[in-house]
C-alpha cells in the first residue's frame, strides 16, 4: 500500500547482556567439601543486519522501534555454562544506509543481496567461581557478572538502487511507460502526483534485464522540499542513468526540461555527471512531432527520442538507447553524457 511506504526511520538497536558466572561448590555423597564448580554465563546475543530482496520499504522497522539481542543465561553448578543469547537479526531491503542517529555519519551501506553485517557483539558471559580457585584460595566465593550489551540509536535510510531512474513532472507518462516496459503495475491517473512512492520494475532486454525506478513527479522547488520534494529526490542518486521524460503535450516542453535539470542539480551537483537520456512522451497526440523538433533544437543534442507508451511508437529504439546508456554508465570512470 502507498500509505505504508517508509524510506527513513530511527531505531534503537541493542545487543544482549552476558549471563552472570555462578558461585557453586561441588556437593556429592562422600565428597562433603568439594571444590568450586560454578559455570560461566552465556554470551549475550549479537545485533546484525541482513539484506532481503523481498523487502521494498522500511515500514516494518517503524512499527517496532527497539531491537534487542537476547541476554545470555547465568552459569550453573557442575561447571555448566549458561545458554548463549539469541541474536537479533534486522532485515532491510537492498540499498539501505545505516547512519548514526546523532551525527549522521554513515556506518554501513547495505546494497548487496544476501549481505549480512554484524553491528555489535553481545556482552561476554561472566566467569564462574571455578576459574578463581588456587592453592591459597580453595573455596572462592566470587564470580564475574556478565558484560553489558551495547545500545545505539541508528538512522536507517532507504536509497533505491536501479539502472534507470525515470524523472519528470507529474503526468509526464512515467508510470505508464514503467507499466509498458516492465511487469510493474503502478497507479496511473490523469491528475498530479498519482505516484506517491517510488515504483520499481524489471525490463527484460535482449540477454539481460534493466531495473527501472519511477520517481514521483518533480515540480519547481522540489530540491527545497516543495511538493513531494526532497523525500524522493534522494532516490535518483543511486541510479546509473537518468531518463528525463518530457510531456510533448505541454505548451513549452523546453521549459520543463530546464526546470527538471535545475532541480536535480540544485539537489546534488553529482547528478549532473550522470549519464542521461532525454525522451519526449505522448507522440500519439497531435502537434507532438513539432514540439519534439523544438525540444531537440533547444537541447543541442544529436538525439532526443520521441515515444508513445500508448501506441508503442519508439519503444524499441528507447530500449536500445537504454541498454547502451546503462552499459556506458557502468564503465569505469564513465563520463556523464546526454543523448
Quick structural summary:
By secondary structure, the chain is α/β, with parallel strands linked by helices. It has helices at residues 59-62, 174-181, 230-233, 253-267, 288-299, 315-329, and strands at 8-14, 47-51, 66-68, 88-92, 96-100, 106-110, 116-120, 151-158, 162-167, 199-205, 208-214, 239-247, 275-281, 305-306.
Any overview of this molecule?
The protein has helices spanning 59-62, 174-181, 230-233, 253-267, 288-299, 315-329; strands at residues 8-14, 47-51, 66-68, 88-92, 96-100, 106-110, 116-120, 151-158, 162-167, 199-205, 208-214, 239-247, 275-281, 305-306. Helix content is 17%, strand content 24%. The model is unreliable at 186-196, 220-229 and 333-339 (pLDDT under 50). The protein contains 6 helices and 14 strands. The strands form 3 sheets. Strands 10-11-9-12-13-14 form a 6-stranded mixed sheet, sandwiched between helices. A 5-stranded mixed sheet has the order 3-1-8-5-6. It has 2 domains: 1-159, Spo0b-associated Gtp-binding Protein, Chain: A (Distorted Sandwich); 162-329, 3-Layer(aba) Sandwich (Rossmann fold). It is an alpha/beta fold. It is rod-shaped.
CATH topology grouping of the largest domain = Rossmann fold
The chain-level mean pLDDT equals: 82
Would you list the SSEs in sequence order as H and E? EEHEEEEEEEHEEHEHEHEH
Radius of gyration: 29 Å
Oligomeric grouping of the chains:
single chain
The count of helical stretches stands at 6
Query: What is the CATH superfamily of the largest domain?
Result: P-loop containing nucleotide triphosphate hydrolases
CATH class of the largest domain: Alpha Beta
Number of domains: 2
Low-confidence runs of at least 5 consecutive residues: 186-196, 220-229, 333-339
Task: Name the helicity range.
Answer: 10-25%
Largest sheet: 6 strands, mixed
- Overall structural class, as computed from helix and strand content, comes to alpha/beta
Residue share in β-strands: 15-25%
Architecture per CATH nomenclature, i.e. the level-2 architecture of the largest domain: 3-Layer(aba) Sandwich
Overall shape:
rod-shaped
Number of strands: 14
Provide the spatial order of strands within the biggest beta sheet.
Answer: 10-11-9-12-13-14
How far the N terminus sits from the C terminus, by CA atoms, comes to 36 Å
Amino acid at each position: 500500500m502507498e500509505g505504508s511506504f517508509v524510506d527513513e526511520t530511527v531505531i534503537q538497536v541493542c545487543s544482549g547482556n552476558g549471563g552472570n558466572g555462578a558461585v557453586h561448590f561441588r556437593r556429592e555423597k562422600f565428597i562433603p567439601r568439594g571444590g568450586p564448580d560454578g559455570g560461566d554465563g552465556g554470551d549475550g546475543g549479537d545485533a546484525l543486519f541482513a539484506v532481503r530482496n523481498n523487502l521494498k520499504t522500511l515500514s516494518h522497522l517503524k512499527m517496532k522501534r527497539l531491537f534487542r539481542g537476547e541476554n545470555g543465561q547465568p552459569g550453573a553448578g557442575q561447571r555448566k555454562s549458561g545458554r548463549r543469547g539469541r541474536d537479533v537479526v534486522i532485515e532491510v531491503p537492498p540499498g539501505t544506509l545505516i547512519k548514526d542517529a546523532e551525527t549522521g555519519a554513515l556506518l554501513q551501506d547495505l546494497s548487496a543481496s544476501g549481505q549480512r553485517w554484524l553491528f555489535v557483539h553481545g556482552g561476554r558471559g561472566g566467569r564462574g567461581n571455578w576459574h578463581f580457585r588456587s592453592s591459597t584460595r580453595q573455596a572462592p566465593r566470587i564470580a564475574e557478572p556478565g558484560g553489558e550489551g551495547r545500545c545505539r540509536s541508528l538512522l536507517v535510510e532507504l536509497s533505491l538502487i536501479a539502472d534507470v531512474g525515470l524523472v519528470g513532472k507529474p503526468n509526464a507518462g512515467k508510470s505508464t511507460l514503467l507499466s509498458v516496459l516492465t511487469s510493474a503495475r503502478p497507479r496511473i491517473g490523469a491528475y498530479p502526483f498519482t505516484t506517491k512512492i517510488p515504483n520499481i520494475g524489471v525490463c527484460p532486454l535482449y540477454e539481460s534485464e534493466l531495473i527501472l525506478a519511477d520517481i514521483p513527479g518533480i515540480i519547481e522547488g522540489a530540491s527545497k522540499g516543495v511538493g513531494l520534494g526532497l523525500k524522493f529526490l534522494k532516490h535518483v542518486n543511486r541510479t546509473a542513468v537518468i531518463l528525463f521524460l518530457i510531456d510533448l503535450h505541454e505548451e513549452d516542453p523546453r521549459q520543463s526540461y530546464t526546470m527538471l535539470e535545475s532541480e536535480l542539480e540544485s539537489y546534488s551537483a553529482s547528478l549532473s555527471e550522470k549519464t542521461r537520456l532525454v525522451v519526449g512522451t505522448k507522440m500519439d497526440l497531435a502537434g507532438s512531432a513539432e514540439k519534439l523538433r523544438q525540444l531537440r533544437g533547444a537541447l543541442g543534442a544529436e538525439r532526443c527520442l520521441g515515444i508513445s507508451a500508448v501506441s508503442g511508437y519508439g519503444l524499441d529504439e528507447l530500449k536500445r538507447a537504454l541498454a547502451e546508456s546503462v552499459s556506458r554508465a557502468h564503465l569505469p570512470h564513465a563520463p556523464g553524457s546526454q543523448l
